Amino acid sequence: MEQHKIDEYNHRHLKEHQRKFDFVASEITKPGDLLKKLEAFQIAIPSWALGTGGTRFGRFSGGGEPRNLEEKIEDVGLIHALNRSSNSISLHIPWDIPENAASVKSLASHFGLHFDAVNSNTFQDQPGQKLSYKFGSLHHADKAVREQAIAHNIEVIKYGVALGSNALSVWLSDGSNFPGQLNFRGAFQRTLHSLQQIYESLPDDWKMWIEYKPFEPNFYSTTIGDWGQSYLLASKLGTKALTLVDLGHHLQGTNIEQIVSLLLMEGKLAGFHFNDSKYGDDDLTVGSINPYQLFLIFNELVEGMDARGMDHATGIGWMIDASHNVKDPIEDLLQSVEAIKIAYAQALLVDKSALVQAQLQNDVAKAQEILQDAYRTDVRPLIAESRLRSGGALDPIAVFREQNVRGGLIKQRGEKTVATGL
Ligand code: PSV
Ligand code: MN
After folding, report:
1. Is the CB of 96 under 6 A from ligand 1?
2. What is the mean pLDDT of residues 71-80?
3. Which residues pair with 89 in a beta bridge?
4. Exposed/middle/buried for 38, CB within 10 Å: 0-12, 13-18, 19+?
5. pLDDT grade, residue 60 (50/70/90)?
6. Which of 59, 208, 211 to mutate to test the pocket of ligand 1 (most atoms within 8 A of CB)?
7. Measured in whole angstroms, how far is the alpha carbon of residue 190 from the centre of its chain?
8. Which label site among 161, 202, 365, 382 has the fewest CB atoms less than 10 Å from its CB?
């Protein structure tokens, strides 16, 4: 995306934007500080989200999808050029193996991108793989399977080192489908022991992010099923191991913001996989179902990070982990990033000292008013202004459509393409 096309769009819409921005900025104390925070706040894009996803019932290709890692990097580069908020990419190995790390790295930096956490995959069997993960990987009863899974994770760290990444993200599907299938204590201890061996291979400045999920693909138990189990592992492993929160990995009604608050308090929050859901791990566009919950999570994040003196932009990992079955993946990702920044901006607007006072006085109605006052502020012109200041588009999706980017990608890549890893 040539910069002049973005600039030309912005120029045409500047007056209209300025009117909206001036209105909201006049209501805020120190809008300049807030804009700086918004500009610094970046959200990583997973390499597996650039293609159309599917369900176990089918997959409907959208056309012009990236056919390889290089094209995925180009797509993230495009997203970043439009929103100036997505300056990194997270790879899943072996869905995206960087065969030539130096050239992949230089392509990424050409687009102003770097590499976020690398993700291992021991939830699928790969062609030619010696031993199967049908009954788990790091928790497997057979030592040889565990060793294979450990070796894979260590290999993923090596790919990550070559790319300049600094975190290994581990999600295990290990669990059981029926009562009696597994000894829970044994499974947990074997997982811990396997993770210990991977932990020993982590470079000094690296982190291990341990993701949890209550069900799917196993439907009776998951060995790392909730934040308590992840936290227990992370605590036993050491300071480099932390708990990763994927918003879709909670049972309905779970108070995720409370989990976030306590993990932050303990210095054990690795970061996020953002998405939204109505029923389970739906992997829907961030903010599409329950934007208020997202705001409440960000309220805890801002409060908890400030309490620990952490930098909002870099203190923990921020990433999207969503899947798009019926939307253009690039548009969907732009919507997700926007929703995250809206929730973040609203959280920054919360009148903290007034909230503390209301809490001390048990003024419940006032506390609710304070939160909802921030949540009901239309911060979109602030996000647009921060994009404008960093060279992005006032309206990224409008530019994407006006320039018929997808049409161009279909011409270049073809109507029926399948992104690796899907
Ligand atoms: C599992 O549902 C998960 O959230 C993990 O993060 C995986 O790595 C990712 O989805 C990819 O499918
Ligand atoms: Mn995830």
Report:
1. no
2. 98
3. 45, 115
4. buried
5. confident
6. 211
7. 28
8. 365
